[in-house]
Specification:
β1, α1 and β2 (35-40) form a beta-alpha-beta unit. The protein has helices spanning 15-30, 67-80, 108-111, 116-136, 145-154, 176-186, 205-219, 237-242, 259-268, 283-290, 301-307, 319-331, 333-347, 352-364; strands spanning 2-6, 35-40, 55-59, 84-87, 100-103, 139-142, 162-164, 192-196, 224-228, 251-255, 271-274, 295-298, 311-314. By secondary structure, the protein is α/β, with parallel strands linked by helices. α1 (15-30) packs across α14 (352-364). It is 45% helix and 16% strand. The strands form two sheets. Strands 3-2-1-4-5-6-7 form a seven-stranded parallel beta sheet, with helices on both faces. The protein has a six-stranded parallel beta sheet with strand order 10-9-8-11-12-13, with helices on both faces.
């Protein structure tokens, strides 16, 4: 079978880009029978696959939500004539009607439409494109039971058309010297809690920042808050507002960090904290669990599904509850060790090799 994988979003350290890189790498390691066409924005970033007999890397430099995606990318697919295409996100050319599998990570835009500009420019296109991707696909992959149920809630598709394939952490060894180096690099001189992710509206980092002030005022926690990740270009004011907290001297904004630094930051933290309002999976939490870091996270359905007993849960809309639960984790050493052990064990349930095997099985389904 000739399989094309749309990797135009692959790359980077977060989200869909990470999913595309990790899943494709494991698929190509496992499968030497089918032939693969990797459709990418920059072929130079995929040179590691150039020597494989069953892999061809093809330039597909067509931005998402663009006319070039709808027209030029469509004609590229028609010309290549793959037996199957795997779109790692829902950006399927709306007139493409040959067999394809699509990964739908979440339906965030159904729940949180975004800013005015994105609504005006993208909302109508988003609705049409994702509806086509879901309804016309041969199979749908999603990353949690929660996201599967969201798809079933909004679209009339058969439940057996949707397969849940969990994401995983890219396990990284971390030494004490690695932790010492990142502490020095980012000026971390105290125990700390960490959030990793894009500073976007759904991540609710303003509530986390408010909870941090409460931790300092009401619980006298002598800690630092590390926020690692890029700002959301649609909401640059989030970073500005976070930076105005009372204890800004104990706030550290690292920007985007690479894998080595990221896992060292996870390992060195007393807790990974996410006050997110909506997620399809929650990969940073699984990454933190993989090095035994306990989690304090929002009491939302998907986090309960993914993190299970590897986390303590709080009301993300209540900064006082956030602070109370973080304080419990920080103050009770035995409880923190229990959650840490639970987290480490739970992380073992997720692997990219398992995800790749399940995805290959989906490719073979009629």
């Amino acid at each position: 079978m000739r399989i094309a994988i749309d990797l135009r979003m692959a790359g980077g350290d977060y989200g869909i880009g990470r999913y595309g890189l990790e899943l494709t790498g494991r698929i190509l390691d496992l499968d030497r029978e089918n032939t693969y066409m990797l459709l990418v924005r920059n072929p130079d970033e995929f040179r590691q696959y150039a020597g494989r007999k069953n892999v061809t890397v093809i330039r597909a430099d067509y931005p998402h939500y663009s006319m070039r995606e709808q027209v030029a990318f469509y004609w590229l697919l028609r010309r290549l004539k793959p037996d199957l295409v795997h779109f790692i996100n829902f950006n399927v050319p709306i007139f493409y009607n040959r067999p394809f599998v699509v990964t739908v990570h979440d339906l965030i835009h159904h729940r949180m439409p975004g800013n005015k500009k994105s609504r005006i420019l993208h909302r109508a296109a988003y609705k049409a494109i994702i509806r086509h991707a879901i309804m016309a696909s041969k199979r749908i992959i999603t990353v949690s039971n929660f996201s599967r149920d969201e798809i079933l809630r909004y679209y009339q598709v058969q439940k057996n058309k949707i397969s849940v394939v969990y994401e995983a952490a890219t396990v990284q060894p971390v030494s004490d010297s690695d932790i010492a180096q990142v502490r020095q690099k980012f000026g971390i001189g105290k125990p700390y809690i960490i959030f990793v992710g894009v500073m976007e509206r759904k991540k609710n980092v303003l509530a986390l920042a408010a909870a941090f002030d409460i931790l300092k005022d009401d619980y006298s926690q002598n800690i630092q808050l590390v926020l690692a990740g890029r700002e959301d270009r649609h909401y640059p004011e989030i970073i500005r507002q976070v930076s105005e907290i009372r204890y800004k001297k104990d706030l550290i904004l690292t920007g985007v960090v690479g894998d080595k630094d990221k896992y060292a930051l996870y390992k060195g933290a007393d807790a990974f904290v996410s006050a997110s309002l909506f997620e399809g999976f929650g990969l940073p939490g699984v990454e933190a669990m993989s090095v035994g870091t306990p989690l304090a996270v929002s009491n939302i359905e998907v986090f309960n599904e993914i993190y299970d007993n590897g986390a303590i849960y709080f009301d993300p809309k209540n900064p006082r509850d956030i602070a109370q639960k973080i304080n419990l984790l920080m103050s009770d050493r035995k409880y923190r060790e229990l959650i840490s052990n639970n987290a480490f064990q739970r992380a073992k349930d997720f692997s990219w090799e398992k995800a790749a095997r399940e995805t290959l099985s989906i490719y073979k389904q009629p």
